[in-house]
Amino acid sequence: MNKIKGAGLGFRREMLDELLPTLPSDIDFWEVAPENWLPLGGRYQQQFELASRQAPFTTHGLSLSIGSSDKLDTQFVKRVKGFLDLHNIELYSEHLSYCSGNGHMYDLMPIPFTEDAVKHVVARIKQVQDIIERPLVLENVSYYMAPGQQMSELEFTKAILDESGCLMLLDVNNVYVNSINHKYNAQQFIDGLPSNKIVYGHIAGHYDEAEDLKVDTHGADVIEPVWQLLEYAYRKHGVFPTLLERDFNIPPISELITEVHRIKQIQNNVTQSTCDDVARVAEKGSVA
Hints:
By secondary structure, the chain is of the alpha/beta class. The chain has helices spanning 16-19, 42-52, 74-86, 115-132, 153-164, 172-181, 186-191, 224-237, 253-287; strands at residues 7-10, 29-32, 57-60, 92-95, 98-100, 104-109, 136-139, 167-171, 198-203, 206-210, 213-216, 242-244.
């Protein structure tokens, strides 16, 4: 099902002059927020169609608000489905959070980690999946408070994945940020995730507000501990397509490509290491 592979980058309107008419071959796939392209026509639509003919695209939405108590905006979801179908995009990813409550809040708010919230979110996911006719892909998000918490973040995430049939976008930087802010072990969190649910990943930079407070900003270079955690996730779950997120303080495309190459390097290293391990096991078996 999943056409995307390798290492990707966000496709942003402010980067169009650098990216077109020919997309950089270093980038294996691209990601867009449907909300940023749905209302556009004319030149922007032509540019997007030109780009989408050259490389695989995926989507990462901003306003589905899957955890909200507001009524699901089914007309919006239908428009997203039309966008996916028109541009032959298989994956619709969103955030495991909410951003509306009697109006749009323009921020990603944490869903309470409770059994009631699991049931509520699962019902809404199934409604979305019925409309888009494909599994919804949900990202683990960074959060700074956990109101009414009855379950761990890992237990909540696994319950949502298991009961809804949705898939997962594993944001490695969010795992790192949350592990510092909420004092849990990042590797143990990754260990507990179901490998068969992870379809692709994100990696990004963040801001150090304090030694024990990290803020997910997507506005800086990826730090070494996060690169190491990405490699750990690959070794645990297998190499999955991974996208570099950079939403502001955006450097020239050549600098972004350097970080994309780092993703590819880690992917290649883990793949080669896995092949070497398999070869050693096979050699031992033939000797025995």
